[in-house]
Design brief:
CATH architecture: Up-down Bundle
Distance between the termini: 33 Å
Number of domains: 1
Largest sheet: none
Shape: globular
Structural class: mainly alpha
Helix content: 55-70%
Number of helices: 10
Strand content: under 5%
Order of helices and strands: HHHHHHHHHH
CATH superfamily: Ferritin, core subunit, four-helix bundle
Number of strands: 0
Length: 252
């Protein structure tokens, strides 16, 4: 089991990132700025929750405690979640939501592309399916960032404010610890330096077209990968996990 611990942690990180982002995007259901976008955000939420399910299902198998993806999603306390802090940040206005999605998508796509070459065939298969969905996600979020940035004075201000507020959470996306190092050595996970280079190229291209200013790399908020989260996480989990905790073992 000790040999499996890095893989288990890595799978939980990939699953938790998507699960928490899916919960956030799902909060827009019925509240989108227009019908088409309402449906689009719901579909994006379903995509990333589906990806989360694949990773968490595999994590449960690796763990060997007969916990399902539902157990891992709904019955873990906050400190056991290892998602990045970016995805748990509140939705804010629509510009804030789309900038958060853009930052995540710009990182998520090159990561999943690299994982299609993983020495772990199960991860490679999960990533292969995810890449098709994430390619659309990045295209859509990039388009919205450009629309906001190159739109009215108010839309540009809202987008720039969101970018400034969320940038501090991007550094954590590229931190590599002993878990990552072990899996890089085994050929399971990619070196995040390569992912960072692709992320930077996407930032430069899209932000230039959006006429938005890229924030300076200063203090970066970390800790999510170790289960230390922002004040938003507890409230998010309280809503997401309520039904299963109120009615243990409930099934449709």
């Amino acid at each position: 089991m000790a040999q499996q611990l890095p893989l288990l942690t890595y799978l939980l990180r990939r699953g938790d990132d998507n699960l928490i982002l899916g919960q956030r995007l799902g909060e827009w259901c019925g509240h989108g700025p227009q019908l088409e976008e309402d449906i689009a955000l719901a579909n994006r939420a379903l995509d990333v929750i589906g990806q989360a399910r694949n990773y968490l299902q595999y994590a449960g198998e690796v763990e060997g405690k007969q916990r399902t993806e539902d157990d891992l999603a709904f019955l873990r306390p906050e400190r056991e979640f290892v998602n990045c802090k970016l995805v748990e940040q509140h939705n804010g206005d629509y510009a804030h939501t789309m900038v958060r999605s853009f930052l995540y998508d710009a990182w998520h796509l090159p990561l999943q592309k690299a994982l299609t070459k993983s020495s772990d065939e199960r991860i490679a298969a999960i990533a292969g399916k995810a890449v098709k969905e994430i390619s659309y996600h990045l295209r859509a979020s990039s388009d919205w960032v450009i629309r906001f940035g190159d739109g009215t004075a108010e839309s540009k201000e809202r987008a720039q404010n969101a970018l400034n507020a969320l940038w501090t959470y991007t550094g954590e996306l590229f931190v590599q610890d002993e878990v990552d190092q072990a899996l890089i050595k085994a050929g399971v996970a990619p070196d995040m330096a390569k992912i960072k280079a692709e992320f930077d190229r996407t930032m430069d291209r899209v932000l230039a077209e959006a006429t938005l200013e890229r924030p300076a790399d200063a203090y970066m908020a970390t800790g999510g990968r170790q289960g230390v989260h922002s004040e938003h996480m507890g409230l998010l989990l309280a809503e997401m996990q309520y039904l299963q905790r109120a009615y243990p073992g409930a099934e449709w």
